Amino acid sequence: MRGRALGALTLLQAVTVALDYDYEGYRSRSGVTAWVDVDTPLDARSKKSSRGETWDLVMSDEFEIDGRSFVPGQDHMWTALDIPDGVNAAIGLYNSSNVYTLNGKLINRVDEMQTNVTYFNQWLEVPDFETSTLHYSAGMMQSWNKFCLQGGFIEVAAKLPGAVNILPDNVHKSTTKNPNALGEIWRDGVKTVLTPNDRVQDGAYYPTWPGIWLLGNLGRALFSASTTRMWPWSYNECDPDYHPHQAISACDPNPGYGLHPNQGRGAPEIDILEGGGAAISSSIQVAPGMPDNYRRKPVEAPDGAYCIYGKACATPGANFPDVPTSAYAYRGHRNWYQGLKYAANNRCPTDPNEVQQYEPVKAVQMNPALLTTNVYNKMQVSAGRDASADLGLIDGKGPAHWGINYNGTCFPIANGYIGAFLCDPDSKNLKCEAPRKDGVANTNQMHPFEYQMDAISANWDIGHDAYTEVLGESGYVRWMLEDAPLFEIPSVTLTKPPQAGPGKPRNPIKLPIEEPLYIIFNIAVARAWGATPPNADIGPCRGNASKPVPGTYEFNKTQNICDSFPMYMEIEYIRVYQDKSSMFVGCDPPTHPTKQWIDGHIKWYTDAKNPMIRVDGGATCNKDDDCQSMSSSMPSGRCVKRRCSCVTGYGGKEDNVICVMPSNQTPDASISTRPSMHQVSREQVT
């Protein structure tokens, strides 16, 4: 489809027992599946996966009905939060009014504003209430506890927020001077014409951190009580070293709350995309992480801590795991995750300096003694900046190989960020971001925990068109752009990590992501992200009276970027496809139940502004038969203003939002809305 780039994620779900979730039993009389938007074109009701299988549409939202409200209790699929962003040095507030539908799109608006918020800070030496000033508002919308999936292909058509207002309007104070938006850039008196596919020239004009991501239903983003010791665990072994730090451990024979005995659970994360500026990031985040002996070597003086992000550290071995070979030889084993798959984004123009050939890189991988560089060398290392990258034929067919930048176009690069060490406020572990000082009394606020989490992540360059156009197997998670693969994490990467052998620290075997995952759209604004607004260190976008200095280039540029607020993320549609024989829909599946746990800890997931309110009906419809179940003997619902409205006494059942049975017979959290921590298209097969 011209003028649109589609991002996609595939998650493959490997199962050993076929389960009948029976959601097909709740089709409407018209034949429409409950979660499928009636506005989805018929030719989009099935999809070929990257492996060639035909998968069926199980969920879609085309956002064609203008004026939808996403406050709790209003929408069948989504809930927008009213809550301050509380992570990554945030300076933004999430406001449900910033998310709405208009002109057939979901709009997430980010505004320049100022508001004071008071919250309880658990991480102070003496926990207490604090008041902070936030300078932006935006939206976070979740399908938490409403729509979840285990495996599938997620396709999102999205436009990311940026300073792209090139025409005068009644919203913005001036038009942008963003060179990509203007289509030209001047350097040394020479003008270069820029196309929409050209790389971003100045990341300052893309000052927010949009995200489209998935999280396990047992953790609710921005509700930290629900994610503590839950995020991002994906571990199902009984190990006494990890048991105290995992909220639901495989060591527990009687976990209660409807959970299965001796089954480790958690809330792993998959980021379809996050970030802004010249590149965006795609990742999975899991725990427990690898021990230090399997991680990238730490930076040593005189290098600064941030050299890892540009992969320009002088410290041998600090840029990439196993690079150079000599820096890691003493360990006697491979390091970090093996066999990750990287492929080109050929929408970008060619850079002749980046053109690479397969043969020399493969030769070095076969003979690691030849790997002598400490920085990227296209003759020795995959273009993914990963010495252990898969170099096989893409999908076994070729002619191109994974990991090789044949055309010198944009290419995903292993992220310098590889995870964090998470601790409770009383921990004195020196790996903690802020270990408790000696002599300072413990607060005893929560169960003690200390654990490493890993981020398996790639950053990929994008063109300016991502901001102006709607962008659009054994187990694996694969990211795609315009049906072409970009990055893939095979399940074996998690299940067969490098091991040092007897007497050495064991590298924990993670579980391929099996948890029911819900979908999140958000725009974060913070000081700690790779893309930040002007003067984030001060607070307000426009700085203060002395910084930036009035009349300077920096001052004028700042004013122009700030004039481009509000900025907008636009979602044209989201569609989810599955192989129904092995992938499932539902937030409380029999293999991984969540309902009783959430109900039993509801205060961890909700607050006064984000309550849990059941929604009966709400599916899109064109006629009454779209709202009535085949199993209903009486009319149970009506199509009212293109949304299903249930007859009194009838409500949704299971993960369906058509009108099936008397609602007082089956209370069901999976079609309710409730409020936690926080965190293109993609295929997931686990």
Automatic annotation (TrEMBL):
Pfam families: SKN1_KRE6_Sbg1 (PF03935). It comes from the Eukaryota. Transmembrane segments: none annotated. It is found in: Membrane. Coiled coil: none annotated. InterPro entries: ConA-like_dom_sf (IPR013320), Skn1/Kre6/Sbg1 (IPR005629). GO terms for biological process: (1->6)-beta-D-glucan biosynthetic process; cell wall organization. GO terms for cellular component: endoplasmic reticulum membrane; plasma membrane. Keywords: Cell wall biogenesis/degradation, Glycoprotein, Membrane, Signal. Residues 1-20 form the signal peptide. GO terms for molecular function: glucosidase activity. This is GH16 domain-containing protein.
